[in-house]
Each structure stands twice: as structure tokens, then as C-alpha cells.
Amino acid sequence: MLRSLVGSEMCIRDRYQRRVRETPTVAMPVALSDSPEVPAAQDHFAGEILEHIASEYGACDAVAAVHTYYSNIGEYTLREDMDPRAFIQFIVDSRLLAEDFTMFDAEDICRKLVEDGYQRFPLPAFWIGLAKIAFYKYRLSPQDSAETLIDDHILPLEGEAVSFMLHHGPRLTETPHPQDLRMNMSHHEMMHRVYLFYTEPGKPMFWDDFRLLCNDFQISPDQMSMDDAAQIFHSVPTRHLTFEDFMGPVLSQVVTCLSGDHQAGPRTIMATPDAYAQFMESLRGAPSMQAAMDWYDDVYGKNAPHRRKARENHVGILKEDESRKDQPVRPAKEYREPEEQAKYKFKSTKHAILPGPDVLRNQGNNPFLSELKERQRAIQLTEPVRQSGSHSHSKRAPAPYGREPHARDAQHASMVLQALCQGHRVDLHLLFDTYGRRDADKGRGVILGDDLHQLVWDAGLIGQGHRLGVTKSINAYFEKCVGSGFRGNLPVSYERFQVMLVRTGEWMAAMRDHAHPNDNIDFAMEDLVRDYLVPLAHAKFWKEYYGHQHLARQ
Question: pLDDT tens digit string along 374-425?
Fold first, then answer.
């Protein structure tokens, strides 16, 4: 009996070892495959499970198309792996950011993938990232989480991804990489970029510049003495080198000195063409040449010699557009449209040919009517603010709406704005104090017109160029939402700032459906908070609410 139990146990053990040997191993990154701190196998297993669920759901092609799309954004050639910054851009474009998945979570996932050894994310790493997103965002079963993620955030991007690859795929396939272009670059253009790298803009090469070049390319004192380099430089009578002098006799004397054929003096013997070409090819692969090429690409960009135009200067730099900076564009003239309209609204009676007796009855200075208006104004100011949130008693100019929104709709829009800001962790008061003056108006805080203009510009509400925004006119925005024309010293309180955001949401709702704007106020407020206020709040500060501690998820 005991012998049979031992035999069965040995049989089970052999069967288990055989099954383990036959099971395919999971491919892990080489960099961290031996590290016990990072469970790379577990991450790969989660990515394979998500890929299996997507294949049963029929969405593998959509995920692959989206991965290819974001792998080739901003690239020179066709790539099959994604930059980590493009992965963050994918999370933003797919509208994954919400209360249950923040930018902190997105950066945490990207950081963990980089720590796993991925400098760029191939398709298996993208599946791992999607599995982490589904684990962070949803509290459902694996299959329901994967299907919800694919339906809500992957499939809406499939059409854009396919269209991008259809239009730009051939271009990415045919366009050579800048590294390949540098390998075939002429010696004249290569040394011209080096000359620009070591000289000041618009100035020739001096002795300090030439000595730094020789040190960086290990010419002197490694291959030739500094005295010989100084003798070659000072052989030019002007004591400074133009590009023609640097490219012609100076480099030729350097090659002659390095080859050892300078017994008769470096000033008289010139280098042979073969030695000169060999010396140039040795400089092409130097690390300093790579640094000079990278600098040239960063400074001049697309203004390479084969793309220079007549309107560019001699070094290929386009003239800067003074009218477009990374600041809000101020109105070119002072805003006086209401005064100009009021000037021609009524016909003046001062220059009438036969003024009638009505000239003597100036209703604008009627003391009885003025006193009545002041009494009504005093009564309105003493009344408490109604719960509807209506600010009809304030002294701001009348808003240019055709009809003011109903008080019930305004209260609902304000409640939706507060709820969305609380859900997305956007502190409006902190945002108001960041741009405004929190100690002004007896501690209640005031934001001036220039600062408010900066705020709406940073949020993207004012469109320019390819950016649509809500409107492209700052005067129209101030009239419509703030209730007054744009002025740099216009004081805006916090309550009026909230009313401005509510009016902006109502304007966006009217852009959705002009006939029934109140039916779309919820969607418009969600777009306002998610697309405009949340990125601005993430860029300016980060604030937790109600004691919630946000820790990195493992």
C-alpha cells in the first residue's frame, strides 16, 4: 500500500515537471528580467489576458491601429514603437482623465513601463499599459473592464488613426531619417554647421573658438601640439577666420600637420585630396559632430540649406513674427465701440436749425427722475441676495443677451459647475487667487481685466490659429460672459468670476443647440471643466479634497 502511494506521488511529480517544461515562458525585458523588485512577468501576463479578451471581442485591429497612430506622431520615419510622451497624449486624447483616473495615474503607469526597461513602447508594452489603465480606472471584472475601455476610449480613435496612416503612411515610409541624411552630407555643409556651432551669431571665428574646436574633436593636444595649432591659426593675417579661411587653408594645414608632411612648414604644403577626405570622414563620426548637428537641428529646424528661401537671412533663420508670442494678444486699439454707437444713436439738438421748446426740457438732468432712480437703487442694494443667484441688482453693465436665462436654469448651471469642479479636483477659488489679487477689496479678492484675459487665454477659451476655443475675440467674450467691455483695469470679484464661467457654459450650450440651449447645459459644463479648466488646474497646481490621500497604486 505504501509503495503504491509513493509511486503515484512520483508519477504526479514527474507529470507536473513535464508540464512546467512544456509551458512557454513569458518574454521579459532584458534590462530587468533578473530583478526581483519588478514583477515583469505579472505585467506581461496581464497584457496577454487583455489581448486575449480583445481578440474575442474583435478589437485587436483597432488597438493595433491606435498604437501605430501614436507611434508615428511627430516621427521622421515609420515606427512600430511609441514614445512615452505619445502614450500620455493618447491618454489625454482618449478622454480617460476623470476623477477615478487622473494625470498622476497616467504618469505613474508611464513611469512604471519605463522602469520595466521600455525606452519606447512596442505593441506588447502598449497592451500592458492598457491593462494597468483598466485596473486603475475600473472596479469591474477583467472582461467588463476591458470591453468598457475599448468601447469608450479606443474605438472612438480608430477612424482618426486609420485616416492618419492612409494619408501620412507613404510619406513616413519614404522620408529618410536625419541621421541618414547626415551620412551623405557634403563636407562643405557639415563643416559649415560646425563653424556656426563654435562661433557667435554674425561673428567670425576667433582663437578661443578654434582652440575649443580642436579640444572637442581631440585634435590638440592629442594629435598635435597647441603651438602648432596656434601657428596655423595665426597664419591668417586678419587674426580671425571667416568660413572660407576655415574651410580652405586652415583645415588643409591641419591635415598636413597631422599626416606628418609639415617639415617644410605648414604654411607652404597643402594636404592631398585623399588625406583631406579621410580627415573629414573621421570628424563625421566624432561625438562633438553629433552635438553640433543636434544643435543645428534645434536652432534652425526645417531651415536646412535645401529649404532656405529668399525671405530668410544668410544662416537660414526665419524672421520672427512679432505679432505672435506665447502671450495673449492684446487688442490693438482701445475699446470704444459703445461710445461710438451712442454718439450716433440720437440726433443732437444743439445744431438744429430751429430748435423747439423741447430743448429746454432736458430729461437727462431731471432732478425728480434722478432722485427716484437713486431711491430705487438704494432699495435694491439693501435687499439680500436671492437664492436664485440672480445678480440683477449689481452695477455691472447689462449683458448683451437677447434674453437673460431663467433663474432656475442659472442656479442649475451653477450647481453643475460646482459639482464637476469638485469631481475633477479643480479649486476655483485657488485658481482665482492664483491669477488675481487675493488681498484686494478688504480680503475678498479681485482679479483685473489683464489677469482675467491671461486666465482665459491659458485655459484655451480664446481661440487663435488652429485652436478653436469658444470665441476668437476677447472683446466679444468679455461682453458676453463678464458683462462689460474689455479693459485692463476692470475689477472682477469672485462671484462675478463664477457667473462668467456659468455664462461661458451657457454659451457653449447655445453653440450645441441654439434653439434649446438649456437641454445641453450639462454636456457643455462637462466640456468646459474637462477640456479647459482641468488642464489649466493640472498645469498650475494640484490640490486634494476632503482628506483623500492619493498614493501610487501598486
Answer: 776 676 666 555 554 444 444 445 444 444 556 677 788 888 898 988 888 8
Kindly tell me if the per-residue pLDDT of 167 is higher than 90.
no
Packing angle between helix 84-93 and helix 103-115, nearest 10 degrees? 150
- Environment class of 505 (CB within 10 Å of its CB; exposed 0-12, middle 13-18, buried 19+): buried
Question: For residues 425 and 540, is the Cβ–Cβ distance under 8 A?
Answer: no
Residue whose grid cell is 472612438? 156
What is the tens place of the pLDDT at every residue in 29-64? 444 444 444 455 677 888 888 899 999 988 999 999
Q: How many CB atoms are closer than 10 A to CB 370?
A: 11
Residue recorded with cell 540649406: 305
65/49 Cα distance (integer angstroms): 19
Considering only CA atoms, give the Rg of the chain.
35
- Joined together, the cell numbers standing for residue 335 give 475699446
Is-contact 193 303, C-beta < 8 A?
Answer: no
pTM greater than the 0.70 cutoff: no
Contacts 24+ apart (CB under 8 A), 136-142: 136/100, 136/101, 136/105, 136/109, 136/553, 137/96, 137/98, 137/100, 137/101, 137/105, 138/100, 142/49, 142/50, 142/53
The Cβ of residue 176 has, within 10 Å, a number of other Cβ atoms equal to: 11
DSSP conformation letters of 20-68: HHHSPPPP--TTTTT-SSS-HHHHHHHHHHHHHHHHHHT-HHHHHHHHH
CA distances from 484 to 473, 478, 481 (A): 14, 6, 8
DSSP states along 451-491: HHHHHHHHHT-B-BTTB--SBS-HHHHIIIIISS---TT--
Per the rule left: phi > 0, alpha: psi between -120 and 50, beta: everything else, 348 is beta
Q: Distance between CA atoms of 511 and 508, rounded to whole angstroms?
A: 5
Query: Binning pLDDT at 50, 70 and 90, where does residue 121 land?
Result: very high
Distant-in-sequence, close-in-space partners of 193: CB < 8 Å, separation ≥ 6:
292, 293, 296
Cβ atoms within 10 Å, residue 107:
14
Choose the weakest-confidence range: 236-245, 254-263, 455-464: 254-263
Confidence of residue 131 (pLDDT cuts 50, 70, 90): very high
Nearest to 70 by CA among 154, 187, 182, 196: 154
Burial 131-159 (b: 16+ CB within 10 A, else e): bbbbebbbeeebeebbbebbeebbeebbe
Quick check: helix, strand or coil at residue 426?
coil
Burial class (CB in 10 A: 0-12, 13-18, 19+), 236: middle
pLDDT in tens, 481-518: 998 888 888 899 988 999 999 999 989 888 888 777 87
Q: What angle do CA 29, 32, 37 make, to 5 degrees?
A: 135
d(CA 512, CA 509): 5
Q: Which amino acid is at 160?
A: E
